[in-house]
Amino acid sequence: MLVIMDLFADVADFVSRGGWVLYVIAGMAFIMWTLLFERFWFYKGALNRTVSSALNSWEARPERKSWNAHQIRRSMISEVNEKINTNLELIATMVALCPLLGLLGTVTGMIDVFGVLAATGGGDAKSMASGVSRATIPTMAGMVAALSGVFGQTLVNQIATRESQLLEDHLTMDH
Length: 175
Description:
Radius of gyration: 25 Å
Order of helices and strands: HHHHHH
Distance between the termini: 63 Å
Number of helices: 6
Oligomer: single chain
């Protein structure tokens, strides 16, 4: 229990040194990873049921060679692909925004540094160092959040592409 309390104290200290932007970056990283885990969960469970339903519906058709059958096949693939690709663009946007939020924290931290410089005339090195630290911590946090998201996003995109291609391969027209 003491370890957990120390961990929370360290996190609170880190956030207090980084400024309010860290709350935004942490919230964005939390939402991004929640969406990534939702996608992993969907690909491991509900996607199989969705694909099976589409395959069963397709195989139950008496004819699969006409123009109408071809359009129905395209519609079925499109509907399943829409479910496969849900939230992928939102995840990509969040991955791209994390470093920008870190940069925002850098700019606000540098504004604090320049405020200290203007107030003290540059003689207070400790306050300037605190401001520079405040400026760099959000950049680091934004980069870490984005890098972790890139790995998850890449994996999710690969799974989505593979599942989409498998569905198209299984909905054959030559029966």
